[in-house]
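G., before I forget:
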Amino acid sequence: MAGVPAIAEAHFRAEAYPWEPRSRPDGFLNLGTAENRLLGDLHAAYRPPPLTDAGTRYAPLYGTALLRERIARHLGGGVCPEDLVVVAGATAALDVIATALCDPGDGIVVPTPYYGAFDTDLAGRSGARLLPAPPDPADGHGLSPAAVRRVLDAARRDGTPVRAVALASPGNPTGTVYPPATLRELARTAAAYDVDLIADEIYAGSVFGPGHFVGLREFAGPRVHTVWGFAKDFALPGLKAGVLHTPDPAVRDAARALAYFAPLSTHTQAVLADLLADPGTVAAFLAENRRRLRASYQAATALLDAHGIPYVPAQAGCSVWADLGAWLPGPDPGFDAERELWRAILDRTRVSILPGEAFHAPRPGWFRVCHTLDAAMVGEALTRLGRFLGTRQKEGLRGAGLHTAGSARPLV
Amino acid sequence: MAGVPAIAEAHFRAEAYPWEPRSRPDGFLNLGTAENRLLGDLHAAYRPPPLTDAGTRYAPLYGTALLRERIARHLGGGVCPEDLVVVAGATAALDVIATALCDPGDGIVVPTPYYGAFDTDLAGRSGARLLPAPPDPADGHGLSPAAVRRVLDAARRDGTPVRAVALASPGNPTGTVYPPATLRELARTAAAYDVDLIADEIYAGSVFGPGHFVGLREFAGPRVHTVWGFAKDFALPGLKAGVLHTPDPAVRDAARALAYFAPLSTHTQAVLADLLADPGTVAAFLAENRRRLRASYQAATALLDAHGIPYVPAQAGCSVWADLGAWLPGPDPGFDAERELWRAILDRTRVSILPGEAFHAPRPGWFRVCHTLDAAMVGEALTRLGRFLGTRQKEGLRGAGLHTAGSARPLV
């Protein structure tokens, strides 16, 4: 169930026969893929550059100088273009950094819940082993450096070599913007245990909540390696433009060598450099994206509230981490019960959402619900989901401590 | 010296400070990179499609259905779109097929001379081992199935597991179009030894000589895996559009899984699907390319002839395989002498050409000379090369059997 094959299969099955109110009312409503489709009108107005020499000829396989310069300016914070490695997607960037850092068998600690594709992206080719770090109930729903330390300690006891800690920041699936103090503590933990940090900051520009995003590199030295891309903030996932920032010269050299196997089309690089050409235009574009993300989030959570479905309040990203634990059958349901609920939702409502098992959720019942899609489709899907859950026996309030309709303030 | 680092380093050093007759007469004349720059005017007239949904959204990571359909039609010969895996460049396609076929340590036999980047492309990430198969003098300059059999026999004796035979067809660096009978014999050899075939046919549409190109898949069953791309035939190397054709379902599934790590930008896929939309336009474009390749080859070889530099007559591709063995010092010069000549040419003439050692040439003295570049630059470079060689003592006619000016007919 867990991992990319399930995500990919659900995505392509749903995409192959999508719901359409008139012509295909029995189609799938795909809320399973974290795709930002709110900016299509802005993209359609843009005219890509022609196939000039710069866009068609051989260029450095870790990114053209022009694109790296503009990405560095866009990322800000003193990022140097020489420390950037542009590759064919954030997946490739994660593969590159894991392969550059790890020998096969080396461990990478990952706080849970985490982006399920990390299993493939970080470990599939590199041979690294992911060591999930589940939070204690006392840790709350946020990022827990204490959980990371528990796994690092256990690895020391077992003699498992650990090379890095990896996380998505802002969080995926939770959409949480982590407080600077927590990130600082995580950086100190990594330094104390002599491991590197891999920060997947692909949602860095997709923060719509009140929280202020700070990159992990603010708190760590040359041992934090950051992944970013154009999939989320620019809503261009198909362009497969992944960026690795690494200030460590030896890691950068290894990453450049690995980029040889996954280079990005120079024409797509020319398109992206063109999109980043004017900082004012970029700022306006990103502000409009944040405005649309916020509206989309508010519409989706209003529907969850209306149906009494609890969720972790999000401040970033394309999804809501919803707790359907109360609708799992029996007194102590396992992940088999979650799988059963997932299947029932898909079969009965044709709504595709991803079960928490795919994100190594600490307990069964969580689902990631993506909402940055056609508003009518999201509305139909969440209404169907709410009605379907209304027909099922609620087994008790497992969502205590989460935001539910009527609570004065999100508690997490 | 050998291998990609040298090729890449020479390329970028030369590209960073290119010769220009007026403003930069001390610049480099880069005849080292097999880049077809004869079609820039045709590219510049083309307008790429806008950033539509199809060009920006998630799509199957082994290539969109539309692009695979059009590539299948373009390749012809009953190629099925389902058997195509589109990835981020021919390098990635070679990495994918080697990784899909080989466990680390497995051997891949490669007839020499061969495209030097095979060392990295086929073995760098896969962990496969390349086993060069040098021809006997009796085998001539063409492809030698007998040489392949000698290496396969030796590997059997040593207990080295061999998984495949790999070759570029048409040949690189030689530009040779192999006779169907030779390809058939190679396919029979592979079958007899129970190994797969990897055919790098990236120059399939760049045949300008009288020979008729036939894909290796005409002679072999599901165990021939073909790599093609848009770098040479369409002169779009920066687009990093590589294609793997494999009729073996298990290999195809593995290749699709590996494509996940090196996908091609969907916008670039939209551009390429658009370029392939009308078969008549494609045929005219390719015919014009062949006409320009032939003219470029004839101009370059006329200069080689004028300076008495022998070469293997080419029928395809961007380069000529020239024999400067007569200009190596001493009675029995080694590859150190070749390196010295290479360095002397680069330093004294600023002409960058690649030494045969980078292609695992059977003996020292060969150089690959690319000519599909600005005609004035190629003319200047070959004139400088000819004059420089004229100042050096010729140590005897090592080029016997090759085409030299005055011989009635190329012998090879």
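The first strand of chain A starts at residue 29 and ends at 30. Chain A touches chain B through 50 residues (CB under 8 Å).

More on Monday.
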